[in-house]
Design a protein that fits this description.
Strand content: 25-35%
Number of helices: 1
Low-confidence stretches: none
Helix content: under 10%
Structural class: mainly beta
Radius of gyration: 13 Å
CATH class: Mainly Beta
CATH superfamily: Peptide methionine sulfoxide reductase
Order of helices and strands: HEEEEEEEEE
Largest sheet: 6 strands, antiparallel
Strand order of the largest sheet: 3-4-8-7-6-5
CATH architecture: Beta Complex
Mean pLDDT: 93
CATH topology: Metal Binding Protein, Guanine Nucleotide Exchange Factor, Chain A
Length: 128
């Protein structure tokens, strides 16, 4: 983990700011990590918090990077989200509260979870 301060709107790209700070989303199948097969750890683009291991990433067909497990229980926080007339569970960074995406209960074993995460909210640190 790093001790960096979360960036403000002048250091995030407009897309990152819209997603992480304004709870937006990127269009499906457009994010840089949707088809990524590289080995490493996915971190929060805002604060560097380690979020997901590449070994838990899978192709859900949803159009966003999907993971079946978080790196550690405190990596993310979950919140009720009833926007747009839907009942979902929002996923935010456990350190800086940046919006990452949502978690659903239609994922694969062993957890049955699908963390559907915006690529723009992530930074992959490849394994050496």
């Amino acid at each position: 983990m790093t001790d960096r301060q979360p960036p403000d709107e002048t250091t995030l790209t407009p897309e990152q700011y819209s997603i992480c700070r304004l709870k937006g989303t990127e269009p499906p199948f457009t994010g840089k990590y949707v088809d990524c097969k590289k080995v490493g750890t996915y971190h929060c683009v805002c604060c560097g918090n380690a979020l997901f291991a590449s070994s838990t990433k899978y192709d859900s067909g949803s159009g966003w990077p999907s993971f079946w497990e978080v790196l550690s229980p405190d990596s993310v926080a979950e919140h009720s989200d009833t926007t747009y007339g839907m009942r979902r569970v929002e996923v935010t960074c456990g350190r800086c509260a940046a919006h990452l995406g949502h978690v659903f209960t239609d994922g694969p074993a062993p957890t049955g979870l699908r963390y559907c995460i915006n690529s723009a909210a992530l930074n992959l640190q490849e394994a050496l």
